[in-house]
Amino acid sequence: MSAGQRQGEHAASPTHVAIIMDGNGRWAQMRGLPRQEGHRRGLESLRRAVKNAGELGIEILTLYSFSTENWRRPHAEVSFLMGLLKHFVEKDLAELNASGVRVRIIGGRDDLAPELRGLVEHAETVTRDNTKMTLVVAFNYGSRDEIVRAARRLAADAAAGRIDAAAIDETAFVARLDTHDLPDPELVIRTSGETRISNFLLWQAAYAEFVFTPVLWPDFDRAALEEALAEYARRERRFGGLSEPANRKAGAA
Ligand code: FPP
Fold it and tell me: pTM of the predicted model, to two decimals?
């Protein structure tokens, strides 16, 4: 638990917001358009979300852009999504950098084409000292995969004598997750009316608030983001403890 997450404390606005951007396909289908058009509009929505989040004071925005399960989609759609990430980095990197956005990619890199991998690593290097906002793109990301990779690193470190197995604790584990340099998200938003976590930030979202909105991702605008933030501000976060009046009562008893 970080300093900002003590029992009973309640910050009105989250530092780190993570979004499961769902509904591109349905958005297109409803208009008789190909799914790819939904993803294209999804990328426009992503750009808008980064801008709005920055303006609303969100310091870290994590976007679930391609999951480890998305490889099961038709080859053409997978290729299109790979191409969209490439297009995004090539076209937007200069502007993101000029706006002070630090770009981080989480997810397995070994399965990415060398060119794409090089491109995202370049984006991370170029922007690493930016401080205005952090954009985390979860690409080829799945929490179970991330946790297994972290466990593999721990096992390798233990086998090499770099860590004593008995000394493995949450801190040692967290240090080996893809998100090792990021605080946990306080708010996770999922669009399109689905109410699942879909293998997203399972470890990191242990104490997050969840907001589910029926809005399809291409339609997710500033008003929808502000509504999710307002919903978050109404929630009471207890981290397994008691609410403040109940705490006082327990203390008095
Ligand atoms: C879910 O919609 C969305 C995705 C699987 C991909 C998200 C991609 C974007 C928002 C575009 C930007 C992409 C990159 C790579 C920067 P869905 O296709 O599952 O929608 P459906 O459930 O309505 O079919």
Answer: 0.91
